[in-house]
Design brief:
This protein has two domains: 3-72, Winged helix-like DNA-binding domain superfamily/Winged helix DNA-binding domain (Arc Repressor Mutant, subunit A, Orthogonal Bundle), CATH 1.10.10; 95-129. 67% of the residues lie in helices and 8% in strands. It contains seven helices and three strands; from the N terminus they run ααβααββααα. The chain has helices at residues 3-6, 11-23, 28-36, 43-56, 76-92, 96-106, 111-128, and strands spanning 26-27, 59-62, 69-72. Strands 1-3-2 form a three-stranded antiparallel beta sheet. Helix 2 crosses helix 3 and helix 3 (28-36) packs across helix 4. The longest helix is centred in the C-terminal third of the chain and has 18 residues, at 111-128. The radius of gyration is 18 Å and the shape is elongated.
Length: 129
């Protein structure tokens, strides 16, 4: 499987990855229960999604235990970076400033979040000099 194909997870696949990234290797039942906390989804849908993800190389299934446990093959940070870069290019013409301005202008950013953003900007500026 080509690497670029691995970095195009669907929305449903990203939800599954989010559960596994947040909780570590997981059974289908565990992932399904976590997904149910946010939306209605059938168990067989979760199972089929995870099986397809394993076929695509996004997940790996450990068959050594009675319940099949799935591990994420895709790493969280590189996947998020690749998806964000694709989104940035497609939606904002590659302009990080346009994206950040839109994001901060359309949401209620807390003072704590703004302070973290300021610290990140300071760190980036310091690292560049």
């Amino acid at each position: 499987m080509k690497k670029e194909n691995l970095l195009k997870p669907t929305e449903a696949e990203l939800e599954v990855l989010g559960v596994i990234w947040g909780n570590g290797p997981s059974t289908v039942r565990f992932v399904h229960e976590k997904l149910l906390e946010k939306k209605e989804v059938g168990y067989t849908t979760t199972l089929k999604t995870m099986q397809n993800m394993a076929k695509k190389g996004m997940l790996k299934r450990d068959e050594n235990k009675r319940s099949h446990v799935y591990l994420a093959v895709l790493k969280e940070t590189p996947t998020q970076k690749a998806l964000l870069n694709r989104f940035l290019d497609a939606a904002f013409g590659g302009s990080a400033m346009k994206m950040v301005m839109q994001l901060l202008g359309n949401s209620k950013t807390s003072e704590a979040e703004l302070e973290q953003i300021r610290k990140l900007i300071d760190k980036i500026e310091k690292d560049k000099s």
